[in-house]
């Protein structure tokens, strides 16, 4: 039997390490093909330690989703010092940059199979809702089912563009951002008859 030896880390540091390793593993293999044993091996710890912090694969996956959601929401949080469009540019830059430097499970979840836990999908939906509410607040848009549906579709479009920006590094990020903003302006104009200023 092989004994796995690992440097001792503070529990919070260990959890962060496991989340980072698990994020890459889930991004590479998807939820169904992911293995707690392989995640433990990649983290250079025993499987029992992984289960100590996360009692199941579903629990670990949900923890990765929540962790990345918190990071993305913090990175894209608007500031009152900027205009609506400046906040949009800043948030889109942060969104794309996050995809480039991390194994972002949230942005690749849409390509996952139906076996992904419903609680994880609900966590992504809540993440989506926060972004929708931010856009409605900062652009002073009517909070209607039609507007929320339109903005939800736009957020899915942004996720797709961020994914492609990461897959095709020859595409200029500024071009991606301008396309996303133009799309949002068209959506807002179609729903309200107004434009973003």
UniProtKB/TrEMBL annotation:
GO terms for molecular function: DNA-binding transcription factor activity; transcription cis-regulatory region binding. Signal peptide: none annotated. Residues 12-72 form the HTH tetR-type domain. Residues 35-54 bind DNA. Keywords: DNA-binding. This is TetR family transcriptional regulator. It comes from Candidatus Mycosynbacter amalyticus.
